[in-house]
């Protein structure tokens, strides 16, 4: 669930994330973030207690406006049902990502990839930086499935859409014949991408 990689920030970024948690997190509140696009706004509520590392990672990108000028670049529809799947977004490529974070699997957090879940994209476990996706439908295969062969740790769910699912479905329905270097993602890249006009706490 990644675009072409760019450079990394200093390890100090990760040290700061762990040493100085956000005040809202310390107070036990569930932060909310508004993702504004030209097709509407999606508001997500983040599970800071259940997925603290993943939530803190997302919020540090939000707080430096790293997603502003980024885009939803992929609409991964399920074969045979274009109303199901996920939409994938990335930060503005001018912003270099922080170092990758530890993987919080769904078996660890108790969260699941249901309709409206926001989750962090990755390649191998422990490689996630800023890319995120939102489920337009229930996608249990994205959860961890211990005991199965191969990479069975799933993705790191960390919140839920509270408003704007119509926008999620609209983006999923857009033309997706853009070019990609990933053969398994052909027919999934939005053309054009949907710009992230702003991604801010609310």
Tell me what you see in this structure.
- It is a single chain.
- The chain is an alpha+beta fold and 202 residues long.
- The chain has one domain (12-18, 30-192): Cyclophilin-like (Cyclophilin, Beta Barrel).
- Helix content is 18%, strand content 30%.
- The chain contains five helices and eight strands.
- Strands 1-2-7-5-6-4-3-8 form an eight-stranded antiparallel β-barrel.
Brief characterization of the structure:
With 202 residues, this protein is α+β, with helices and mostly antiparallel strands.
Q: Strands, helices and their partners?
A:
Elements: H1 12-19, H2 23-26, E1 32-37, E2 40-46, H3 52-63, E3 71-78, E4 81-90, H4 106-109, E5 117-120, E6 132-135, E7 156-163, H5 165-172, E8 189-201
Antiparallel strand pairs: 1-2, 1-8, 2-7, 3-4, 3-8, 4-6, 5-6, 5-7
* Structure classification: alpha+beta
Q: Write down the secondary-structure element order.
A: HHEEHEEHEEEHE
Which sheet architecture does the biggest sheet show? 8 strands, antiparallel, barrel
Number of domains as seen in the coordinates: 1
Second-tier CATH architecture: Beta Barrel
**Dominant shape:** globular
In CATH, what is the class? Mainly Beta
DSSP strand content:
25-35%
Give the averaged pLDDT, no decimals.
88
Number of helices: 5
Strand count: 8
The CATH topology: Cyclophilin
Kindly report how far apart the N and C termini lie.
Answer: 26 Å
The name of the CATH superfamily reads Cyclophilin-like
Poorly predicted regions are: 1-26
């Amino acid at each position: 669930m990644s675009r072409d990689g760019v450079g990394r920030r200093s390890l100090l970024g990760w040290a700061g994330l762990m040493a100085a948690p956000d005040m809202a997190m310390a107070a036990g509140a569930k932060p909310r973030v508004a993702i504004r696009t030209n097709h509407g706004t999606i508001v997500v509520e983040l599970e800071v207690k259940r997925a603290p590392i993943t939530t803190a990672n997302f919020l540090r990108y939000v707080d430096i406006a790293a997603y502003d000028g980024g885009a939803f670049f992929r609409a991964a529809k399920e074969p045979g049902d274009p109303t199901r799947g996920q939409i994938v977004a990335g930060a503005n490529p001018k912003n270099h990502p922080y170092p990758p974070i530890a993987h919080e699997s769904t078996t660890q957090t108790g969260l699941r990839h249901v309709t409206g879940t926001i989750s962090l994209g990755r390649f191998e476990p422990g490689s996630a930086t800023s890319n995120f996706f939102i489920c337009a439908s229930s996608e249990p295969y994205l959860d961890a499935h211990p005991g199965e062969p191969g990479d069975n740790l799933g993705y790191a769910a960390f919140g839920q859409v509270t408003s704007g699912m119509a926008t999620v479905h609209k983006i999923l329905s857009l033309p997706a014949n853009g070019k990609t270097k990933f053969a398994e993602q052909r027919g999934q890249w939005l053309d054009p991408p949907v710009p992230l006009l702003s991604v801010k706490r609310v």
